[in-house]
Design goal:
It comes from Streptomyces albiflavescens. By secondary structure, the chain is an alpha/beta fold. The chain folds into 2 domains: 3-127, Response regulator (Rossmann fold), CATH 3.40.50; 140-213, Winged helix-like DNA-binding domain superfamily/Winged helix DNA-binding domain (Arc Repressor Mutant, subunit A), CATH 1.10.10.10. The protein has helices at 12-23, 37-46, 63-72, 93-99, 111-122, 132-141, 159-169, 174-181, 185-199, 204-213, and strands spanning 3-8, 28-34, 51-55, 80-85, 103-106. A 5-stranded parallel β-sheet has the order 2-1-3-4-5, sandwiched between helices. Helix 3 runs parallel beside helix 4 and helix 7 packs across helix 9.
Length: 223
């Protein structure tokens, strides 16, 4: 299946480089390019994109607000957003996830990693960087000024489901969760799907937010 990708970045050279890379992949097609957040929202509606590669800093409407508008549009329910960031804008990552992004990458990501990230997010998985960035996300999600999570809390989860949610928040994929808990990959996937249903979460990125904001996972344990 071909992944229809919309590129949103205010730098024409960056868009051109990404477009060239994506068009070299047999399973991807660039269906539009936007220089502003507002253009990204409009093109997401008209170009029937599966995924938007979204820069954060753009004129007219920034990438976070554009992501929020896309995530809130019922007609764009199947559109995923992969946010691009740089090291000096990491403080926006948690806000981007709140807005509805399914993952993020830094702009110096290797070409092959970008392509794989697009496939991962388009396939319904969340892409969250582990290590220091995960701890940074936790710090912002646990800040006193943070609003309550959009999805429900983990109180209604079983002990096993709480274990799985903790591992999701640490950035583990289904295969890694299965290996850690001694489960089959199918069982791990079933647990994740059931947790998403119980919490009303759209994807794994929202599960991470719930895990941190509920206190199930804290910055000191997410590494």
């Amino acid at each position: 299946m071909t992944i229809r990708v919309l590129l949103a970045d205010d730098q024409a050279l960056v868009r051109a480089a990404f477009a060239m890379l994506l068009e070299s992949a047999r399973d991807m097609e660039v269906v539009g390019q936007a220089a502003t957040g507002r253009e990204a929202v409009e093109l997401a509606r008209s170009a029937r994109a599966d995924l938007v590669v979204m820069d954060i800093r753009m004129p007219d409407l920034d990438g976070i607000e554009a992501t929020r508008l896309i995530a809130a549009d019922e007609n764009l329910a199947g559109v995923r957003v992969l946010v691009l960031t740089t090291y000096d804008t990491d403080e926006y990552i948690a806000e981007a996830l709140r807005a509805g992004a399914s993952g993020f990458l830094v702009k110096d990501t290797r070409p092959a990693e970008l392509l794989e990230a697009i496939r991962t997010v388009a396939g319904g998985e969340a892409l969250l960087s582990p290590g220091p960035t995960a701890r940074l996300i936790a710090r912002f999600l646990r800040s006193p000024s943070a609003p309550a999570p959009a999805a429900g809390g983990p109180d209604g989860l079983s002990e096993r489901e709480r274990e799985v949610l903790t591992l999701v928040a640490r950035g583990l994929n289904n295969a890694e969760i299965a290996g850690t808990l001694g489960l089959s990959p199918l069982t791990a996937k079933t647990h994740v799907s059931r947790i998403m249903g119980k919490l009303g979460a759209r994807d794994r990125a929202q599960l991470v937010i719930v895990a941190y904001e509920s206190g199930l996972v804290t910055p000191g344990t997410a590494h």
